[in-house]
Design brief:
Length: about 325
């Protein structure tokens, strides 16, 4: 098929391509071609080509670009989807629309074995939800994140891929030799990378199935020797691990405040707490800061090192993180 192309010397190709992209003139449906010392860059909007390149426009046959088939191309609209390993998650109240999206996902080039729709909110003490299986079968998958693999079953454990960037931010602060306690560890998305950084990690969770996956994931990622996985309430290990933690992860929004006395008991002489909270936009950090200071009392100096909005949680509410340092004089 003949299309307009900007023809320039090969060595100028990348610089010219960037200029055309900046001018919103590129034709993304056709391939760039090289013939001898000349590169031919297809343009969709010749009128947008910068004036000094307009004389270089020629007509030339160009191959169509082989693009992956997307669900949006099949449906005619962009569905709301979330990827977790080889599972695609839909969030639709309309069952007919949800099944339409699932069919499009399976017919597309998206690598996917199963499509699920959320059938309930997160429920109960173990923070799990029910799912409708729209396509494929099974709810177990392997999720990959920043070089680590996590085996999990979304029907049995809580896991949010949306927190990957936040988890990486915390992990990047860790130094080898630290003792870290992940108070609500799940399948190990904090604990395993912390151990990979050289920390000795105690990881606790009420969900026995999550702890089974945690042990498997520690093995899978080669850090089993640095992860102690405990099934149970973290308050039950406070005496055994009192005063040992250089770092505490408290990722239990809504309820973490109930465990601050335990956190202070676990903290060593110089300890960083990563405290997750959900609060109103009018004062997203104040309640957590005040609660930590109250729990620390006169035992520690309290320094808030980071106040971070992780994501929007609900209208006018934020999921936030406080990085707080407790230090004894």
């Amino acid at each position: 098929m003949s299309v307009p192309c900007v023809a320039v010397e090969r060595e100028r190709g990348e610089a010219v391509r960037k200029r055309l992209a900046d001018a919103d003139a590129l034709d993304g449906d056709h391939e760039i071609a090289v013939d001898g010392d000349t590169i031919y860059i297809p343009v969709a909007a010749p009128e947008a080509v910068p004036d000094d390149l307009a004389a270089a426009i020629v007509e030339r046959d160009a191959a169509e670009r082989d693009r992956p088939l997307t669900p949006a191309a099949i449906l005619g609209y962009e569905p709301s989807l979330e990827r977790l390993g080889d599972i695609v998650i839909v969030d639709e109240d309309d069952d007919e629309r949800a099944r339409e999206i699932a069919e499009a996902v399976m017919a597309s080039d998206v690598p996917c074995e199963t499509v699920l729709n959320r059938a309930s909110p997160i429920e109960g003490e173990l923070r799990v939800r029910r799912w409708d299986v729209l396509a494929g079968n099974g709810t177990e998958t392997v999720h990959r994140e920043y070089g680590h693999e996590f085996l999990l079953d979304v029907a049995e454990v809580y896991f949010s891929p949306r927190l990957a960037t936040e988890r990486h931010r915390v992990v990047e602060q860790v130094e080898s030799g630290e003792t870290a306690i992940d108070m609500f560890a799940g399948v190990g998305p904090y604990a395993v990378p912390l151990a990979s950084r050289g920390a000795d990690v105690v990881a606790c969770d009420l969900n026995e199935r999550a702890v089974e996956y945690l042990r498997e994931n520690a093995e899978r990622n080669g850090v089993a020797d640095r992860v102690t996985a405990i099934a149970g309430d973290v308050r039950e290990i406070a005496d055994e691990y009192a005063g040992t933690a250089d770092r505490l992860v408290m990722n239990l929004p809504h309820s973490a405040g109930e465990f601050l006395d335990t956190a202070v008991r676990l903290a060593g002489d110089d300890c960083t707490i990563h405290y997750y909270d959900i609060q109103h936009e009018d004062d997203p950090f104040g309640p957590g800061t005040r609660a930590i200071r109250a729990a620390a009392g006169d035992a520690y100096d309290v320094t808030v090192e980071t106040e971070r909005v992780v994501r929007s949680y609900a209208p006018h509410e934020y999921n936030v993180c406080l990085d707080v340092r407790l230090s004894r004089e």
